Amino acid sequence: MSILLNKDSKIIVQGITGRDGSFHTGEMLRYGTKIVGGVTPGKLGRKEHGLPVFDTVSQAVAELKPDATCVFVPPRFAIDAVWESIESGIGLIVIITEGLPSRDLMEAKSYASGRGIVLIGPNCPGIITPEESKVGIMPGHIFKKGNVGVISRSGTLTYEVVHALTQAGMGQSTVIGIGGDPIIGSRFLDLLKLFKDDPDTHSVALIGEIGGSDEYIAAEYIKNEFGKPAVTFIAGKTAPEGKKMGHAGAIVAGKSDSAQAKIAALSEMGISVAELPQDIPELLEKCSL
Amino acid sequence: MKLYEFQGKELFARYGIPIPKGKVANKAEDAIGYCSSSDLPVVVKAQVLVGGRGKAGGVKVISEKEKIKETVNSIWGLDIKGYKVEKLLVEEGVEIENEIYLSIMVNRDSERFTIIACSEGGVDIEGVAKVDPGAILKMDIDPLIGLRSHHKAKLFSHLSLDNPNIKYQIGYIADKIFNMSRELYLNLVEINPLIITKGGRVLALDSKIVVDDNGIPFLKDFEKFINNDDKSPQEIEAKEKGLSFVSLDGNIGCIVNGAGLAMATMDMIKHFGGDPANFLDVGGSSNPEKVINALNIITSNDKVKVILFNIFGGITRCDDVANGIKAALKALDISIPIVIRLTGTNEKEGVKILEDMGMETTTSMTDAVKKAVALSSKEA
């Protein structure tokens, strides 16, 4: 098992005829993802990678009954693409696009809540259940099937950690890049809850960074309810105050935003924090004993 | 992006939020002129993108004509937390009956707009929150529902307002700051203080506005508000070139793909006893132009003694990145050592390209960082 995504999940791609959308559709198909079609307004009837293209999400949903959608639509039109998939009731919406304003995400989340819809991203690498399916842009070959769940606010840092896990012979159940923006579809806590109920996830690696309080919220849950081993890494110990470190959400505005404060709080709660990302496999092994 | 107080007030004026009469001076002489031609008292306020101006001597009231020149000159050029005062706002003095705190922000935790209010204005609100949390009203507003009458009733009740005229004015201002936040993608609008004058008018005496950078491309008629005054020249150049860059104090220049990995690289440098000179996310692109721009920006800092590349090839292929580095090094004359960590997709091909030109590479982030730290601590 896994969370959110498996080999049978049917996926559509929004923005499938765009440069990135088309390229990554090819990569996802090669990985084995069951992509069933795509949407680009004005391109109805066209084929992309041999798959049908529709004008609207509702047409694609009526025809293909997808379980998830992957959004590659450029920033100016992306939020409307998200609204459209929420309205069409697609259960999992993965937003790869970078540069969406917080306001738009707040509105979309408000609308999606209570409808049983999971949003991932934006500004994220996506989600992968190794050797089954990937929805996003991560390099499939570094992942390996196994029992570690990974949740991360970063892209390439996730690859660094996953690479170390795979090298150490520790495969992954599902890996989710939740994105580095201040307002994101799914937060650490939302996904930890899913991992808790997944029998194939035996432990979790959580990759956080400066900014916001999601690491604290996740730590409370891990300590009190999660019931499985968890190891964390927090990036940004050297980040100066008040500067945005690439990600829109990675900024130290107050004391509790800093990596030091997060590391101290997590350690105090008995949650192990890796000094270096490469230490995660060893720490996981230790606390899984 | 932070706005200056006078820019925030200009937006207030656009939205119909009352502000004191005032003028911005870009030269000390102009400020003196504005003061001299105004009815005294006037208030002169240093325009800097940082808080704590009052304590630093950046805000002063002038009541006597003889004091104008002296007071303006005492503020002009002042260094306030690293920001030099080069703009002054000259405003009419107003008679204050009462001061209130009012703000609205994008709340990362509740994922709502949050209105914050306190019946004491002109205070350090975070300080009050610690000492007397009950004094502060925090009210979440669902962006899809908006600010409704019952929200305002709650606001009036918390502020113990009973005068209908004052309630009307404050309710109107609350509506406007909500509309502004929504329409202009503002992460924060703070009015501290919002004042009630002896004549019963409600005025925004100060403004603090932070714009969501992701919203700026969608805003119309906003060019005049864009400022880079809190960025270093290198940061401004990087922004123009589409690179994500932050200046730091150390001597190891970093070029990394991905923001999280870039932060982790800086942290690891520090862990092994070195000092990073910058944060730089070169992005997923292997475009040689980007690598050239990144190298140019980094080497423009004389402090940098060694350059460290940390590339985890994902969708970006290592051979593409290696070709980018090769082209960049051919185009530029770089005399300091370069350490390259290259791993991931097409790693072997990438390594070969660089080794053929006599560069050393490693696939281990730890080894690369240790090597860069060792090189950075050598005496030149």
Please provide a written account of the structure:
The complex is a heterodimer of chains A (289) and B (380). Chain A is α/β, with parallel strands linked by helices and 289 residues long. Chain A has 2 domains: 1-123, NAD(P)-binding Rossmann-like Domain (Rossmann fold, 3-Layer(aba) Sandwich); 138-289, 3-Layer(aba) Sandwich (Rossmann fold). Chain A is built from 9 helices and 14 strands. Chain A has helices at 19-31, 57-64, 75-87, 102-112, 156-167, 188-196, 214-226, 259-268, 280-288; strands at residues 10-14, 34-39, 47-48, 51-54, 68-71, 92-95, 118-120, 126-129, 133-136, 145-152, 172-177, 203-209, 230-235, 272-273. A 7-stranded mixed beta sheet of chain A has the order 3-4-2-1-5-6-7, sandwiched between helices. Chain A has a 7-stranded mixed beta sheet with strand order 9-8-11-10-12-13-14, with helices on both faces. In chain A, strand 13 (230-235), helix 8 (259-268) and strand 14 form a beta-alpha-beta unit. In chain A, helix 3 packs parallel to helix 4 (102-112) and helix 6 (188-196) packs parallel to helix 7. The longest helix of chain A is centred in the N-terminal third of the chain and has 13 residues, at 19-31. The model of chain A has no long low-confidence stretch (mean pLDDT 95). Chain B is of the alpha+beta class and 380 residues long. Chain B has 3 domains: 21-92, ATP-grasp fold, A domain (Dna Ligase, domain 1, 2-Layer Sandwich), CATH 3.30.1490.20; 96-225, 2-Layer Sandwich (D-amino Acid Aminotransferase, Chain A, domain 1), CATH 3.30.470; 233-376, Succinyl-CoA synthetase domains (Rossmann fold, 3-Layer(aba) Sandwich). Chain B is 35% helix and 25% strand. Chain B has helices at 5-14, 28-36, 68-75, 125-131, 149-158, 164-183, 233-240, 259-271, 288-299, 318-331, 347-356, 365-376, and strands spanning 22-25, 42-46, 59-62, 79-80, 83-84, 88-92, 96-107, 112-118, 136-141, 186-197, 202-204, 208-211, 244-247, 252-256, 278-281, 306-313, 338-344, 361-362. In chain B, strands 7, 8, 9, 10, 11 and 12 form a 6-stranded antiparallel beta sheet that branches. In chain B, strands 1-6-2-3 form a 4-stranded antiparallel beta sheet, covered by helices on one side. Chain B is elongated. The two termini of chain B are 39 Å apart. At the A-B interface, helix 4 and helix 5 of A face helix 8 of B.
